[in-house]
Write a structure and sequence with these properties.
alpha/beta, 8-stranded mixed sheet, 13 helices, globular
Length: about 280
């Protein structure tokens, strides 16, 4: 990441006044539940009446697949808007879930890291693409890839806040400390409004003493930034993507679905406090 700040492109008054809350869901470690959190938190927020958009920034396109969107149906993607070939609004795709839409990712996004290197204002491509385009949404959740490259940097610069899914395992804190340093550097160099929205403990197993120990350590380190809701290790959460559904549609009554509904409630309450 560059040490020198690059002047951010000016934002229009319309974006400043009407922008939705943009939350990047990020952790450079893979397999911690980023995409699962993006899909199911978005569904839970939509179920409360919020208008939500997911932006799939992961070249694997798992958020798109997990919402039942086939590769053939991904006509305009995040790659197109990052390259300036399409407007963000043209990429917004219905999901079949009321009040929830998606900007999908396709296989071409895998080459975006290299292509962006040669583009002007490469760190600001997503931010510029979203300007004046998304006033119809209350929340935009950006599902980031498991890396701290240009795609994640674009998401952090476009976002108001970062949500960090943190798996309850031994090396969890070590990995997230690197992300916190990156967030701090992005805030200083590119995006002074960026903050940590919260830490979400995922894959929590109450039968495992390690989960309890990791949760306690994370709460000691981050304090009130850690959500009270924990996402349990739950087989229904794991099964749902193979059916192209969020777990809330696959099995509303399972522990995983209920956890994401509670997390959505915490976030809405938190947002109320931020607005006060």
């Amino acid at each position: 990441m560059p040490d020198q700040a690059i002047a951010a492109p000016a934002l229009s008054a319309k974006l400043v006044l009407n922008t939705p809350r943009i939350i990047a869901i990020a952790n450079q470690k893979g397999g911690v539940g980023k995409t699962t959190t993006a899909i199911n938190l978005a569904t839970a927020l939509a179920a409360t009446g919020k208008r939500v958009l997911i932006i799939d920034m992961d070249p694997q396109g798992n958020a798109s697949t997990g919402l039942g969107l086939s590769s053939a149906a991904r006509k305009v993607t995040t790659y197109d808007i990052l390259m300036g070939d399409a407007k963000a609004r043209a990429a917004v795709t219905p999901t079949g879930i009321p009040r929830l839409a998606l900007i999908p990712a396709g296989v071409d996004l895998a080459g975006a890291e290299l292509e962006l290197v040669e583009r002007t204002q490469r760190e600001f491509r997503l931010r510029m693409a979203l300007a004046d385009e998304l006033i119809d949404f209350d929340y935009v959740l950006v599902d980031c890839p498991p890396a701290l490259g240009l795609l994640t940097l674009n998401a952090l610069i476009a976002a108001d806040a970062v949500m960090v899914p943190l798996q309850c395992e031994f090396f969890a804190l070590e990995g997230v400390s690197h992300l916190v340093k990156t967030i701090d550097r992005v805030r200083k160099a590119f995006n002074p409004r960026l903050e940590i929205q919260g830490i979400v403990l995922t894959m929590f197993d109450r039968r495992n003493n390690l989960s309890e120990m990791v949760a306690a350590d994370v709460r000691d380190y981050f304090g009130a930034k850690v959500y009270k809701t924990v996402i349990p290790r739950n087989v229904r959460i794991s099964e749902a993507p193979s059916h192209g559904k969020p777990v809330l549609l696959y099995d509303l009554k399972c522990a995983g679905s209920q956890a994401y509904l509670h997390l959505a409630g915490e976030i809405i309450k938190q947002e109320g406090g931020l607005a006060a």
